[in-house]
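User: Quick sanity check before I run a bigger batch. Here is a single chain. Can you write out its predicted 3D structure?
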Amino acid sequence: MMNVTLFGLDLAKRVFQLHWVNMETGEICRRQLKRDQVAEFFANREPAIIAMEACGSAHYWGRKLVAMGHEVRLIAGQFVRPFVKSNKTDVADAHAIWETAQRPGMKFVALKTEEQQSVLTLHRMREQLVKMRSMQINQLRGLLYEFGIDLPQGRQKGMARIVEELPLLDGRLSVMFIDAIRQQLKRIEALDCDISEIEKKLTLWKKEDKSSKKLMEIPGVGLLTATAAVATMGNAKTFKSGREFAAFLGLVPRQSGTGGRVKLLGISKRGDVYLRTLLIHGARSVITHQKEHTPWLEKLMARRPLNAVVVALANKMARTIWALLAHDSTFKKDYAGSAA
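Assistant: Done. Predicted structure follows.
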């Protein structure tokens, strides 16, 4: 292992920066590469360790370099930043990445496959479309409220009321306003169709993916949560435990302490916001709609506020997801874990 060269590679759109130490002479080497020179440079090298920051295009370059026989280590940007000395430049970033990759106990990001990234792309597109639809509907609420129409809460109820009220406004309001409202409704309808198409694609992928099917057996985990969890996690064994995966999602308390006394604060809200949101919505749905709760959940609901119970259940769901994927097991409703 001592004879394997470690490269620190700072990614960019056009100009890449490299930092490494020549294992034979001990010379510190720095080199700037154009985008089309990166693959050629590493193709002619002995198998090495290449460390990169987990940023845009990192997984693409990681797969490309692994195919050449190299070992790739992706590092979260928050761990690299403390090692940037003085001013932030490409040279300093490459050096910081090289230095960070050698720290004992450093945690690395799992390399995602093209399929996993494709699924996450669908999720990102759907998330943006849902935001756009919410913006359009909220604007309609505000505009119609100015003319005395108070829409009920909820997207479906609100849209149904607009359809009912619009014919009644034809004779009272200007044609220009009515036409503008109808065009807005068409845009919302188009967004509904786009969101539905993405969900159909996710459903087709779920049918072919055994892991997603397995996760959907967990109460509160539906199509979106299952597919997003599989695609986000990458290799489940990258995380040492379910708690580490829950911490990655920001579902564990922040800690503040000194002198051996540790104080637990609110949840950290670090990591993947999208998947954490899906898990919390799923947990809230279980508590609200499930008729029979487990004894653990009933005891927790009796002594803690509702939101705290929701987060605790989301944490448990995240740990269950990790256990099923890491140990290749199936969900058991009455499973009783053993003490560590």
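The chain has a mean pLDDT of 90.

User: Great, the batch can go ahead then.
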